[in-house]
Amino acid sequence: MSFSPLAPDGTTYDVSFDPAKSMLQTGTVAGQITLKAQVAGKDIATVNGSGSVTLQVRGQAGVIDKVSIVNRTASTFEVAITGFSTPRGTGDLMTATTEVCFAFSSAKGATVDISSQICALRQDIEIWYERPVSYPYGSKFSGSVIVSFSGDAKAIGVVKTWVKNKEGDSAPYCVDFQSGHQQDCPK
User: Fold this and answer.
1) pLDDT digits (tens, 9 = 90+) for 92-119
2) Measuring CA to CA, which residue among 176, 109, 96 is closest to residue 141?
3) Hey, what domains does the chain have and what are their CATH numbers?
C-alpha cells in the first residue's frame, strides 16, 4: 500500500490497513491510495495485467465532530470544537484556508444584538498541521474560541458552528447554549 501525498516525515498521515480484519482506513487527508496484490509478500498481477488499484480520496468540505460550550463566566464563554478538513492546507493564505465559523441566535422571547458571523482558528489550524506531532492525526484538529458578551447569558439561544475550507462549508453543527446539547440547526 502506498499513499500520496506523504507527510513531510515520510509517514502516511492517518491512513492504515488492518490485515487481521482486511480493513482499509482511508484517513482524513485528500490524496491517492495505491493497493498492490501480493501473495507471500510478492507482487502479483491480475488477469488484465494490473497488480494494483488506485483509490482517490477527494478533498471535501470540513467535518465537525464535536462542539462544546465550556468555561462560562459572567461575561465570556469558550466554544471548543474538534473536526477535520481533508485539504490539510498549510503555507500562505491561498493554501491554508481551513477555519471555523460561528453564528449566534437568540433564545425564544429574547433579543440578542448579533453583529455577524465570526471566523477564527485559521492560523492555529495551519500551525497544528505544520507540526510533526499532528501527522498521525491526518487532518483532524481541535481548538477553541473565547467569546465575550454583555447582558444576560440566558438570551443566547443556539451556537451554530461550521468549518470552511477551499472545498466549501461543512454541514453546520448547532449547540443549545443553555443545555450544551447538540440540536438541529434553525432554518
Assistant:
1) 656 678 999 999 888 888 877 766 688 9
2) 96
3) 2-57 (no CATH), 63-183 (2.60.40.10)
Give start and end residues of each alpha helix (H) in 38-149: 122-130
- CB contact burial 75-111 (16+ within 10 A = b; e otherwise): eebebebebbbbbbbbeeeeebbbbbbbbbbebeeee
Report the candidate in 78, 70, 72 with the shortest Cα–Cα distance to residue 100.
78
d(CA 7, CA 42): 26
Q: Residue 36 has which C-alpha cell? A: 498492490
Q: For the whole model, what pTM was predicted?
A: 0.85
Tell me the H-state helices in the chain: 122-130
